[in-house]
Amino acid sequence: MTSLEECLLQPFLNAYVHPACAISISEINANGTLKSAPCWTNVAFNAHLPEDILSRASIVDLIHGTLSLHRAHANPDPDVCSVPARHWTYSAAVVTSFLIITTSPRNYSGDTPDDHAFSPSTNLFPRESMVVSPRIVDLWSRTQMGKLILEFPWDSTPVGPITLWSPELVMIVTLMLEWPERLCLWLGEDSIAVYNDQYLKVLGPRKHINMLGKPYREVFPELWVTHESRVQTATSGERVYVVDGLLLMDRERPEADETSWGLEETYHNWSFTPLRVGSKVIGFANESQETTARVVAERRMATIVEIGIATSSAMTREEFYSGAYTQFTNNSLDFPFVIMYAVHNPCKAKQGASAEQGPATKQTRLKLHGKIGVPDGHPFAPQDIEFSHANASTETVVSASDTTSMPSDPLCAGVSTFPEVIWPFAECLAEGESVLVSSLGLNADTLDSRSWGRHCKSAVMFPLGVKGDWQMVMIIGLNPCRPFNAVYRDYVKLVKATLSTGLTTVTNIETAATKAEALASLDRAKTVFFSNVTHELRTPLTLILAPLEDIIAEDSIISGPKAPHVRSQLNMVLRHTRRLLQLVNSLLDFARLAAGRFLAMFRPVNLPALTTDLASLFRSAIERGGIEYIVSCDPGPEVVLDVDAWEKVVTNIISNAFKYTLRGRIIVKIEYTTTHAVFSCSDTGVGIPEADLGQIFQRFHRVESCMGRSIEGTGVGLALTFETVKSLGGHIDVQSQFGIGSIFTVSLPLGTDHIPSERLAPESESLEQPARNRDRLRYGHWMAEEAHGWLSTDSVGLISSPNGHTQSGDGANGNGNGTVGESDPSQTAWTLMSDDERERGIGGSTILVCDDNHDLRDYCANLLRSTYNVISFPDGGAAHEYILSNDVDLILSDVHMPRMNGFELLQHVRSQQSTALIPFILLSAAAGMEANLEGITAGADDFLVKPFKSKDLLARVRRQLLVGGMRRDLEARVQSRTKLLVESEARLLQQITESEHMRKQQEIVVDLTSHEIRNPLNAIWQNADLIGDVVSRLRRKFGDQATSLLNDADDAVQSISLSVAHQTRIADDILNFSKISMNLLTLHRAPFPLHETVQNVLRWWDLEMKERDINVEITTSPELRDRWIISDSQRVTQVLINFLINAIRFTSDTTMRKITVFMNSSDHLHEPTSYRVCTVDEDFEHDGPWLTIGVADSGCGLSPEDRVKLFERFAQAHPSKDQFTGGHGLGLFVSRHITTLLDGVIDVESVKGQGSTFSFTIPVTFTERPPDDAQNIGRRLSRAVPPLNSHPWPSRPRAKSTPSKRHILVVEDNVINQKVLSRQLQSRGFHTSVAGDGQEALNAIQDPKFDGDLVLMDIEMPVKDGRTACRELRVFESLGGLQRLPVVAVTGNARAEQIQECLDAGFDDVAIKPYQIKDLVSMIERILGSETE
């Protein structure tokens, strides 16, 4: 029996996405039931179908019918039968010895029965009259290629029409169309193409149009040559499989490709699998999986890696380029040709002779460095290119057709040898990016064919290096068989980045090597120079030293009274000349050692005895310095060495130890091992910082941070010691801890094995003669003498007076311990001073000299002490301590000193106010403008370079003393003037403080007066309201029985109310007059509704005008209706009230009683047409509208004389005419000042007997209605504002009263006001409770039984005022103690700032006394209503 694998259907069935199974025919019973389970099922079958699916009746009928029809036709080709079920359509076909069942999904409508009965008459299609099953048509039509296959005229091909296709072929095509990968069936002997949708990616859109139903040789003519044999292999029944096979295919490239033509390099995993029906091969299946991206990427990345490896070890640019060229040569596919040009430094820009010649241009030279794939002499690669270009924009893509007829490229203008070069070098170098040349023209055909045997048609060029400093321009040809897409572009960028990075690294290596070679060359030159110069210096030093020693040794030459001074000076010269010779010798020795010219003569030496003698040279100096000195040299065998070299080693090490050991001990030892003699010198000195430890033996290196006995030195001593020990065949080592000490160890090998025979001396050195008596050991004596000189620098605080005597000063601790040489009798400084300078008193000035060199310090002191008091110190620390407690007129300091150097001392002096003006002169051996500038910048007054002349020093000291004296005089004057200014400022501040205090007191008086006036007025008004309420209730109760009596009571109540209102206005005017007199009147500008505010004013005086039978009307221009403005509503209202009351007074006695209130606006201030009061400042500017509010009456009018005096204080035109209110002469005076504060004017129009018009015009700003349209703060009842802590606080809930009877807590210290207000609130349905002060109110609120809804709280109260109580309540609420309780301030303080203080304290609103109870109730209802919402 043929197996499932042998029938070649298993690969298709495995990839089938819907349920499928295979059943061996031998396992099927005659009735269609199964003897056993299917021999094969796919994953979908097990996942989507129930286990008993094959035992259902419809499926059993399908199996039985299919087998019956197959046997009836006795045809080896399969027949296909199918049956629909609920969700699937089941198809069955016999293939060889298997029954194959496949499924396809169907749309289930819900009314289809679960199974259909199998009907052979409708599902069996005989071969002779076969039509394509509708189910197959439906399956095939779901894909693009399935539709084309159904429409294709197959009868014109060897395959024949679909109606003659075998069921096996139909099934194979069905599986092919649903195959998820690229699959093509090549059918018949001609290999006719039938493929699925995925295979379109292999063909490309252009080929796909004509390739269906065509033979292989026509579909892929480019592959037929190599694939013909493989096709024959497959059609003969043998499978062909290739991994990553190269296929140069002719398929259309993507639109993004700018270089599309010709064959494309592709790679595929592909196979030719024979298709069999029975034993017959009917064709083969071609499955293809493209791997082009991976194969090309691996090849390209391998090239990148190889470039990195090949260039990583390059030390020069030539090595780098050589490694890169090798890799470009190896990868001929991606680099068909490579051209590299070296960029030489740009030439100077050429400037046109005139403006017509254009702007300056830049010239660049390129030289051919290397090429691959380009024949010699090719136009693409000239040897030299020089071109000029301006900074103009250029195209990114440059194209040329044929270089023989191509016009000159403007980017390459000026190319000398090859004017036809097409490379856009200018753009490439300017932008620094890759530039594509999309077409190379016909000359590209003459290039070497390195890629697929085809010529490159496009290229990319890019610069290498750092932008602005390009080193190379690289041109690479593009693979002619790959599209230049985004992936290719990224690869070019990666090549550029790799080469640029490597080139930069190699360039840095070359630069470092060049610098190292330059430094080595300089070092060699310096060594030769030192060697030569020291030889030249020894001659003049010999001619100085020899005569000088002869003069000092001959007593008869130096005689007379000046002999001691002259001898002292000569000895100082001798010491420093010898020191100079020592330095010269050290440099010469070092130069000889570095040049290898030091020829040591080795002889056997008693090392312990020699070392002990050399160490004893320093004993006197070390013990004088207070240092314990221990020399312990163990006896041992002789050591072969050079005595002079060992002298330098020992003396340098001991000298260095003494220099940096200020206390403790120094131990010198000689010890032996079996192979070495070991010399060690340990000390308890300052030690060496860890950062400097590795450089301690480098020449010229100095440890700046260590404090020693002297800061002098060249940094040669230890370097010379190190080289000397090496020349002796030994080794030197150092161990040190900063602040603890150091140990220098020298190991010398025993024996002579390490010594060349020619360096051994013929006779040994005498071991019995002490080293100190040998004339040849001068080096050690000089080092010991220098160590003695360091002890001289330890003397501090040496004061020299002008008479030549020297005494010990206080110094740092009040004790001196040294002396200074005798005074110079010539008195140089004094003799050089002029009479004027002596009169100025600089003689006898105190000068501080600070230098660590004893001789230089004494020399400067001797020059100056003839005229000045001189005090000297060896370091800056001691000098600074002295300056802090003593007067100094000038400081002369060296720069380099121990403990504290000159710059640090200068910084300390300048930072102290008491010493900042002291003249400061710096001494330094550093010459040049930079050193001078550094000193002056640091704050020095002068900078003197060593060596200097004595007269130069004296002149500079004298000049700085004169300048310092003038500076001190000027500073004294400035201090005196400053003191006077400070005292004047203090007096002024005191006056301002007193004035402010007086103003505060006046404010307090005004506030108290306002409060005390308003409180009784409020009580009268509230009692009048209460009486009015009682009268109203009595009128309802008794009706007409007491009408006359009740009318009289009503009249009395109204008279009381009018009197209170009049008294309130008088109080306001008097308070405002007081504020004006004390300059306390202020403004509070805020938005408010204009028309509504004016209506409220008229409503307040409606009763009085009705009493006087006055007709009132209001006229408003349209633009002001419903308009909100920004100004001070309280002050505007006050002026309007004063104008209105004035009109009422003078209209009440006339026959026609009419008052008109009008409002209008203008964009400018109109010119006066009558009498104008107040003027606007000329500098005042206002771009907004001007508002005019006026009151016109039909009264008696005013005469011109009355108008003039009307706005003066206490002025009245007709005092006797006011019978009701009694004018007081302040209203219009206050109005005039308020209008002036508002930057406005008042106009008065009046004719005697015809009435008057009073109007005021002020600048305002129009605004939109705010979200909260309540009344503004400045009004009589201030608007409610959001509470300070508006967010809900977690707290214990407050007991709530019923909505019908709200609980109001009245907090008032005035008992009368307390009772009246409580009665009035109770009469309007509120429940009330009372408290006498703020603390009592807080206690009541914090009671858990308190169920209050709102608090009315007075401000001025004993024990605790209202503002304090409200703040504490808000704090308690914020801590979670209570829910927020509304609080309204009830106060007689009506200033805007006082109202704002209340709001800031946490009040929800402010009611100003006196008030009407109906307005207060409205406020309460509004607050409680908003709280409920």
Write the layout of secondary structure elements.
Elements: H1 10-15, E1 20-24, E2 40-41, H2 43-48, H3 57-73, E3 80-84, E4 88-95, E5 98-105, H4 120-123, H5 134-140, H6 144-151, H7 167-177, E6 182-187, E7 192-195, H8 200-203, H9 205-211, H10 216-219, H11 221-235, E8 240-249, E9 264-277, E10 280-290, H12 292-312, H13 317-330, E11 338-343, E12 347-350, E13 361-372, E14 384-389, H14 425-431, E15 435-437, E16 459-466, E17 469-477, H15 486-553, H16 563-594, E18 603-605, H17 607-616, H18 619-624, E19 628-633, E20 639-641, H19 643-659, E21 665-672, E22 676-683, H20 690-693, H21 717-727, E23 731-737, E24 741-749, H22 778-792, E25 798-800, E26 806-808, H23 828-832, H24 835-839, E27 846-850, H25 854-864, E28 869-873, H26 876-885, E29 890-894, H27 902-911, E30 920-924, H28 929-938, E31 942-945, H29 950-1038, H30 1043-1077, E32 1086-1089, H31 1090-1100, H32 1102-1107, E33 1111-1116, E34 1124-1127, H33 1129-1147, E35 1154-1162, E36 1171-1173, E37 1186-1193, H34 1200-1205, H35 1227-1237, E38 1241-1247, E39 1251-1259, E40 1261-1263, E41 1303-1307, H36 1311-1323, E42 1327-1331, H37 1334-1341, E43 1350-1354, ...
